[in-house]
Write a structure and sequence with these properties.
Layout lengths: L2 H27 L12 H23 L12 H16 L8 H17 L6 H26 L6
Helix pairs in contact: 1-2, 3-4, 4-5
């Protein structure tokens, strides 16, 4: 698969997600908060607009680019498809895994990390321990940011 094709697919997918995010953020703009100067939809709307702006710039760069080399070696195609499948499954199952969100997030981070970094013949147990620790720390950071700092429960 060529770089241009991969970039176009990813950018169009991000654009669809950005439009969905922006439409969702606009719903928060309608919520009237009399005590605050900024309402809940202010920053999400700005983020959605900036995302769409960056996507438009990247689309232009991709379309005007002269080079079109191979995106990744054929040997990595299986890994790319597996990561895309894991990510799609995680996002589609989000509402079903909500009570165990943090556990499934750790498992998702671990699975994706193993797929991306593990090489044939490499010892499995040390890799699982190391990447498992990273997955737990990343999920802990998500918990600290959303649940503790902002008071937004993801479960």
């Amino acid at each position: 698969m060529k770089v241009r094709s991969v970039e176009l697919i990813v950018l169009l997918g991000l654009a669809a997600a950005g439009v969905w995010y922006l439409v969702s953020a606009v719903d928060f703009l309608e919520a009237e908060e009399q005590d605050y100067f900024l309402n809940p939809g202010f920053f999400p709307t700005i983020l959605g607009c900036v995302l769409l702006l960056f996507i438009a710039v990247s689309l232009l760069q991709t379309l005007l680019s002269k080079t079109n080399r191979e995106a990744f070696p054929e040997s990595n195609t299986r890994r790319v498809i597996l990561v895309i499948g894991l990510t799609a499954a995680y996002l589609l199952l989000w509402s079903m895994i909500e009570p165990l969100f943090y556990l499934f997030t750790v498992l998702f981070f671990l699975a994706v990390s193993l797929v991306l970094t593990l090489k044939r013949g490499a010892p499995l147990l040390p890799a699982i321990a190391r990447l498992g620790l990273v997955a737990v720390l990343l999920t802990g950071l998500v918990y600290l940011i959303f649940d503790v700092t902002f008071g937004i429960s993801l479960t």
